[in-house]
């Protein structure tokens, strides 16, 4: 365990139940992350990962339970939370197709955030594409832009839905360690949803497996790495003795 | 229009696409035989989606596209589909206003004067059986009456695949169908793909999920900067140094190892315990 | 030559109004995706406010007024202008806060309906609140002249043009150069993503609404002395302004700004051309209105792509659809009720019922084309009108007998529908709405209102007879005969049933597929272009039949039945009734102009002259409270009940701790370590 875990959580979901049209998709979920911690939120398709992240930024109202962020209850307005430093890379990427790459980045910048030059270092490909309309980019290039946009303001809590989706293996291998470094250096708390269990566990401090909207397994990434069979089992909603 | 006797199901010759100054596809030659699963991989922005767009008529291209020997470049997209060439989209592109079952129904019943008369005179119920079969194949039978927006991402992808498989498909081009699928779903999907190919359908698979691609594909093509830089059996491709450099990254290194090497090389970040 | 130049400059004042309206429209569209039909009405309020202040110092408010002076000492010019501009800005802001913000997640069409409602409402309110008969505009800009290349030019015209260009430049700079402006464009594309970047889309939009309202108010206030003041025209200046905005694809401020000025000059030059001997008589009316639209359509058509390209977000959000099922008992009940109503009423009430039935057929044509195929069309009433005019020619000049006359006339409308549908192959969404509006405007001014094409005695229509039976609407003192009413009932019923079959079948599903995603539709083998033309053809046919029935019900056709305003009202009413369902069309027919609801207001409540305010206000209210339309609201309610049942069932399943998918027992929430 790293020393970072000693500090107070920056995001806490407590007894959270959330869903669509009154039908819960996630029930009674407890989750917390601390500065500098990377948490992998895992689970099969339809488990409720996206739903959880949406609730954690205020984009979906909770049916029951609470969300605390940066020492205060979450605001109902997503933009307030974003300005306070709690934001999300949604699974549709949330890039603006009609704007150029440069404009996409421009509106994401904040005082006290990361330098544009640094972000271009993370995603060198984007540097040469600044004049392109974002809608013309390839899927993976859009994913890079989405991540670049999210990193620019240096949020305190960054939620990333489907981190590696659309990225080539080499890009993923490059990105993950970088994310680890950023989390450490900026003390950024990161919750990432990822389908590649091993990739996610490799850089995470902690992990949680959802199944049918409930926590099937959670613990330190270290432990889960050593108990891969249990993780697999959790994907089917089973938890063997641990 | 020349029909060659011993022709591939899908074949492109010197296929090129230009967007302004960018050459997105550069003289791509590729074949897919009936019953074969062919992988198309390459780094982000290599031109894979562009290739699918060109083959299915959604972007302007030069060069030849042949379906069972017959030249179809110059045909409109819908005509290519009627000829048996189907595709999925990287971003899903489902019909948000239709239920899952109706999404498939439109691929089975095309509009026109004949359909119009049928609607009025006999009424045209959607062909339930074909739809159910296709939905069962991708495990979506129980969400047939839902709208796509109510489904999780992985399920949406599978609706797209099912939609591409109904209505007399001979060759199907799948653009990252497994992106967003969890490991099990992805394995399951691989098995489905084999079954689809076994039925005689030619499959072109684009995906970044290497365990899936290396597992199910009979042959692979690797694109980089719009050009085919390698082609061959999965085993060959995996070891090809050019492919490793451009796309795969070092094969033996797991991300955790990369992590370690980067972290120890001169950064001050705290070591991750393991 | 100098005469020509003189007219070019004379047109600049009107051109400046077009120009500022157009750039304001582009701004609002960039910020919200809304095409604001009320832009002109908002400015109209400002100009009357200034006129009232300058006459006797009264600041007229929507309710009540404040006296800031007297006839002897009216408000000084500068404060009056500032106050006037402020009212326009305030109206725009109110429109945003009260009407459009609540609708931000509603289908795009809800916004079209609401902004049409707002346009009609404000215009009616101006007439009610201001003494429009006696108020006049006083000069604000200097009245001097200068001579340019032999032409005498008003300084005020030049100043107007200068203001217009300055407004355009300002808006361009805001959207192109400031981060806030860029974020505004972003927020209109993806609200959640913008929020996630820390922007409040509402505030960004509010800024643009306010600026655009103020700008539109200002230019009209400045130009009113030159252009003239009446309670109608400025509201409709928005139509040419839209065409102008379209030349720049609703995206370019520079193009919109300059094209507005050019259009103003062009129309002035046409006026001059009318005085020349060699200018043909048929071209003396409406050409100024028709020509620019042809140019716009051609320009757009050349620019547009057949299938939207990657990354273009052409698809409009549309209300959900309830696929119709023909159930015998409700169908028979509705038809029987209509028949009974016809038999039990007489004269104006029965006429109201007949009108409502016909209107519901026209609304149905909109349900098919707009609700199902997703092509927003404001030209449907023009299709109806064209069929009506064809009917007049066919029955009077060629003696074509009754049922064939309708079919042939409707086919003429169908042909026109296909022609108007051609731009739709490459122009989509809100832009298409404007193009069809332009087409309707061109047809209205160039065909319906063209004296050269209208016979002296008006457009007579011969009485319909069938197998010796007289089906005409009037007999002796009877205003509306049973025979005619029943004929209408039969025609409308048959057409409606046929359309319901279509909607429930493969054609309906294909329409919905095209409506929701054209690229995907092409990728499943649908010929998108042919499907769209089919939709336009069918819809125009339905509207054409409706137009013929209107013709027969009046015995003589007047252009007033088929104006652009009627078309706008029809679309808005059809939307509020429920644009995606047949029952919505019936509701629309009920509340449509001169229908049952009108008769009720007129006869029972004696409020006929308030029909426009009540209808427009009602429209607005309905659009805001019921963004999916009345019929949709009912369906929604039914859905909610269904969901509640499902929720209850799911909850029960969850309590038992098992779902059908899980065979083994589940241990939930077990923590590791
Ligand atoms: N808008 C919606 N309306 C109704 N139900 C929804 C909606 N979005 C998601 N659901 C349902 O809620 C459940 C959880 O969905 P969610 O998107 O959170 O899953 P997920 O874990 O993110 O899955 P994936 O890995 O496929 O993205 C699913 O059963 C899904 O069908
Ligand atoms: N309309 C366009 N105009 C300009 N450039 C374009 C256009 N469409 C695509 N491109 C560029 O062409 C290149 C190839 O894009 P393509 O989408 O084919 O890549 P891809 O191989 O599918 O990548 P990914 O794996 O990220 O999906 C990209 O660099 C993209 O930015
Ligand atoms: Mg998800
Ligand atoms: Mg791609």
UniProtKB/TrEMBL annotation, chain A:
GO annotation (BP), single: L-amino acid transport
Keywords associated with the record: Amino-acid transport, ATP-binding, Nucleotide-binding, Transport
SUPFAM superfamilies with a match to the protein in the record: P-loop containing nucleoside triphosphate hydrolases
ABC transporter domain residues: 11-237
GO MF annotation terms: ATP binding; ATP hydrolysis activity; branched-chain amino acid transmembrane transporter activity
Pfam families: ABC_tran
InterPro entries cross-referenced by the UniProt entry: AAA+_ATPase, ABC_transporter-like_ATP-bd, ABC_transporter-like_CS, BCAA_Transport_ATP-bd_LivF, P-loop_NTPase
Signal sequence residues: none
CDD domains: ABC_TM1139_LivF_branched
The organism's place on the tree of life at top rank: Bacteria
Family: Belongs to the ABC transporter superfamily.
Protein name: ABC transporter ATP-binding protein
Automatic annotation (TrEMBL), chain B:
Polar residues bias locations: 259-274
TM regions (residue ranges): none
Gene Ontology MF, one: L-valine transmembrane transporter activity
Entry keyword Nucleotide-binding: yes
Region: Disordered, residue numbers: 255-274
Keyword DNA repair recorded: no
InterPro entries named among the record's database cross-references: AAA+_ATPase, ABC_AA/LPS_Transport, ABC_transporter-like_ATP-bd, ABC_transporter-like_CS, BCA_ABC_TP_C, P-loop_NTPase
Pfam families from the UniProt entry: ABC_tran, BCA_ABC_TP_C
One GO BP: L-alanine transport
Residue ranges occupied by any ABC transporter domain in the UniProt entry: 10-250
PROSITE patterns in the cross-refs: ABC_TRANSPORTER_1, ABC_TRANSPORTER_2
One GO CC term, this protein: plasma membrane
PANTHER family named in the record: AMINO ACID ABC TRANSPORTER ATP-BINDING PROTEIN, CONSERVED COMPONENT OF ABC TRANSPORTER FOR NATURAL AMINO ACIDS-RELATED
Protein name: ABC transporter ATP-binding protein
Species classification: Bacteria, Bacillati, Actinomycetota, Actinomycetes, Propionibacteriales
TrEMBL record, chain C:
Record's GO cellular component terms: plasma membrane
CDD domains given in the database record: TM_PBP1_LivH_like, TM_PBP1_LivM_like
Domain of life: Bacteria
Gene Ontology MF, one: branched-chain amino acid transmembrane transporter activity
InterPro entries: ABC_transp_permease, BCAA_transport_permease, LivM-like
GO BP, sorted A to Z: amino acid transport
Membrane topology: Multi-pass membrane protein
Record's keyword annotation contains 4Fe-4S: no
Keywords: Amino-acid transport, Cell membrane, Membrane, Transmembrane, Transmembrane helix, Transport
Record has Cell membrane as a keyword: yes
Transmembrane segments: 6-30, 42-64, 76-99, 106-126, 146-175, 204-228, 258-275, 281-305, 326-345, 351-369, 402-422, 429-448, 479-500, 533-552, 558-577, 584-601, 613-635
UniProt-annotated location(s): Cell membrane
Main location: membrane
Pfam families: BPD_transp_2 (PF02653)
Record family assignment: Belongs to the binding-protein-dependent transport system permease family. LivHM subfamily.
Official protein name in the record: ABC transporter permease
Organism listed in the record: Aeromicrobium ginsengisoli
Lineage: Bacteria, Bacillati, Actinomycetota, Actinomycetes, Propionibacteriales
